[in-house]
Specification:
Largest sheet: 7 strands, mixed
Strand order of the largest sheet: 2-9-8-7-6-3-5
Radius of gyration: 21 Å
Distance between the termini: 20 Å
Number of strands: 14
Helix content: 25-40%
Length: about 375
């Protein structure tokens, strides 16, 4: 960033760092939890045809209510719940969409946060939650997860009751830990505050077996909202399409803060085309889960502390120096994530070839320098990560 000292920037933004992760052109990129597999050609053809049909009409504004996209998302989510063995009564007026789930979260915080209000999160977790919060002028408060990065219903209930926040962020599976929380934790948060409870399920499709979504708790809970994305399991990170599911009255409130026509015609068309091929796009999820499990088993076998993951990434501890390991891997053309938690690092699942390259590099590094492994596994007293 440039020098902003001479600008009349808000005092609460001074000293903050923008969100970001290293974007380096190396052969194996396993640092930002992208889906390693490209979109299948049959889906590309469908998306191309969908975009072509809209080019001539770009002189007109898009459908501000994205009605077709809402219908497609409801159909997809009905399938999600069916596969999990749950039933949720969904309707298009319960759906909101934006340019990535970050914009959706931003809309929610704009509507229910702001100056004089407080958001509570349980760290380490996704670093955009506090950034979105403070960007609206709201106050961020964090409560630390336990040494296993887990959350109990009792702990969450006590912290929520103590802080009495206007917004609660819960992330499941959690980024950067990969750990999931039970529905009882979400219920505990909801029952102990009068604010909005956001459940960020960006990685939910990678849970195997499929866990019940927080969508199953929506009935009778008008302050609960579930956010999801097409960036991860759908391999559509470049599309930028996130969405939320909540009571119609909560969704209606988001119209007060969105920018006019915030979702382009092309984005809507491409997302609908992708959703029509959901089964095909999600075929690679099981392959990524296999890679995730392979990484976890190998890292544990060579001495790292590995945490259970329901996502497409693995958090591992017992790292003597995460920056040093990061550099040693980068020297070998492999990019992982130093997430700022002492003695921990994160790697996302790649293709079979990328996974093999990463694990071979780890073995090579350990053979040359066994001190890469720490003598002990310090607790995680740090806070945040980035996607």
């Amino acid at each position: 960033m440039g020098n902003i000292e001479s600008l009349p920037v808000r005092s609460d933004l001074e000293g903050l760092k923008p969100y970001g992760a290293p974007h380096l052109n190396v052969p194996v990129q396993l640092n930002v939890n992208e889906n390693a597999y490209p979109i299948p050609e049959i889906v590309v053809d469908s998306m191309r045809a969908a975009a072509d049909s809209h080019f001539a009409g770009l002189n007109r504004y898009p459908d501000r209510e994205f009605d077709d996209l809402r219908d497609h998302l409801v159909d997809y989510l009905n399938g999600v719940n069916d596969r999990a063995g749950t039933q949720v009564a969904l309707s298009p007026d319960m759906i909101w969409a934006g340019n990535g789930s970050n914009e959706v979260l931003s809309h929610i915080v704009q509507a229910f946060g702001g100056p004089g209000r407080t958001a509570l999160g349980f760290t380490p977790s996704y670093s955009m939650h506090p950034l979105i919060t403070t960007g609206t002028g709201a106050t961020w408060q964090a409560a630390a997860r336990d040494e296993e990065f887990d959350l109990s219903a009792e702990f969450v209930a006590a912290e929520v009751a103590r802080v009495d926040p206007d917004i609660v962020f819960l992330c499941t599976p959690n980024n950067p830990t990969g750990t999931s929380i039970g529905l009882d934790v979400i219920e505990a948060a909801y029952d102990n505050c009068s604010g909005i409870v956001i459940v960020d399920e960006a990685y939910a499709e990678f849970s195997r077996p499929a866990k019940p979504s927080a969508m199953t708790l929506l009935e009778g809970r008008p302050r609960l909202v579930v956010s999801r994305t097409m960036s991860k399991a759908f391999a559509c990170a470049g599309l930028r399409l996130g969405y939320a599911i909540a009571a119609p009255e909560l969704i209606d409130t988001l119209r007060l803060v969105r920018l006019p026509y915030h979702l382009s015609s092309i984005t809507q068309a491409l997302a609908c085309a992708a959703l029509e091929h959901a089964d095909l796009l999600l075929d690679n999820v099981d392959r990524l889960i296999d890679s995730r499990n392979r990484i976890a088993e190998h890292l544990a076998r060579v001495g790292f502390r590995v945490y259970p993951s329901d996502s497409n990434f693995v958090l591992f501890g017992n790292v003597a120096s995460p920056p040093a390991l990061w550099q040693q891997l980068l020297d070998r053309g492999i990019l992982i994530r130093d997430i700022g938690i002492p003695h921990h690092a994160r790697v996302n699942a790649g293709t079979d070839e990328e996974t093999t390259a990463f694990l071979a590099a780890v073995d090579e590094i350990l053979a040359a320098d066994p001190q890469v492994l720490a003598d002990s596994h310090p607790g995680a007293d740090q806070q945040l990560t980035e996607a």
